[in-house]
Amino acid sequence: MRDDDCRLWAEQAGAGPPLVLCHGGPGLWDYLAPVTRLLEQHARTIRWDQRGCGRSQRRGPYGIARFVADLDAVWDQLAGPRTALLGHSWGAHLALRYAIEHPERVSHLIYVSGTGIDPDRGWHPHYKRNLRLRLGPHLDRWEALSARDRTPAEEREWAVLQWSADFADHGAALHHADRMATPWLGINHDCSQAVNAEVKQELSRSDMAAQCRALDLPVLIIDGTEDIRPRWAVDSLHRALANSQRVSLTGAGHLPWVENPHDFRRAVATFLRQ
Q1: 3-state secondary structure of 184
Q2: How large is the average pLDDT for residues 182-203?
Q3: Less Cβ crowding at N or C end of the chain, within 10 Å?
Q4: At what angle do helices 124-135 and 139-146 cross, to 10 degrees?
Q5: In angstroms, rounded to a whole number, what is the distance separating the alpha carbons of residues 273 and 270?
Q6: Looking at residues 229-257, what average pLDDT do you find?
Q7: What is the pLDDT of residue 2?
Q8: What is the mean pLDDT of residues 84-88?
Q9: What residues does each domain of the chain span?
Q10: In this structure, what DSSP letter does residue 255 have?
């Protein structure tokens, strides 16, 4: 599909009411196929690669407004007039922004492992400290790769090491991260830097809490209790939303459907039936 002549990859699967999925990053590609499989009896899921990423055309501009418009194009072609929306990590922020701008189009919002709306981003130093702690014996190699220009093979190795910190089970973390990196479609660092900088500016300049208070739709916030991003960062968002519920999944990190799939599926399916 296309928006402003930029080709966007998308795929749908499953049966039931439509549910649009927004992957995280920014600068990554869709890795939410396991979510599709978990929910295949409950929803027709629609996945897509954000512009410049994965199987979508590698071209800008990279910015929040442009990504919201791209999501709207996916919506028009595949979703329907009023549809549920799930976003993970950076994709949770994108989904929230879409719901704020197009509340009439969103029936349910599922905010998975996001990092909240606080303007000072006070969670980030805690994340960096927890990342280094979780990397454990892999810290030296990760630091060495972080400090230099990487070959394509080293770039994948660096990503797998970093992503391994997003899982609570140390014994399985590298395996889970390697599956995320397969197939390896390459990180768009230009996209990541541009969008992350804009998110930081947006939160410091806008009153997203007031926008969230005006949002009149049901919201489910899902966290993994072992996420290295501190979950108190999402408290102010939870308080600002008029109709929200929060579920914390034990034994799960940043990708809670991987390490606690049963409770993740139950929480999302129950919420979508409401």
Answers
A1: coil
A2: 96
A3: C
A4: 120
A5: 5
A6: 97
A7: 56
A8: 98
A9: 2-123+187-273
A10: S
Amino acid at 241: L
**Is residue 100 over pLDDT 90?**
yes
Structure tokens at 20: 């649009």
Q: Stretch 32-39: mean pLDDT, rounded?
A: 97
pLDDT of residue 1: 59
Question: Token pair 């442009």 is at which residue?
Answer: 66
C-alpha dihedral sign at 222, 230, 210, 93: negative
Q: Do the beta carbons of residue 218 and residue 196 sit within 8 Å?
A: no
Q: How far apart are CA 187 and CA 55, in angstroms?
A: 12
Least confident piece of the model among 4-8, 233-237, 267-271: 4-8
Task: Estimate the share of the chain in helix, then strand, then coil, as percent rounded to the nearest 5.
Answer: 50, 15, 35
Cα torsion for 236, 244, 23, 155, to the nearest 10°?
30
Instruction: Provide the residue count of the chain.
Output: 274
Question: Position 249: which residue type?
Answer: L
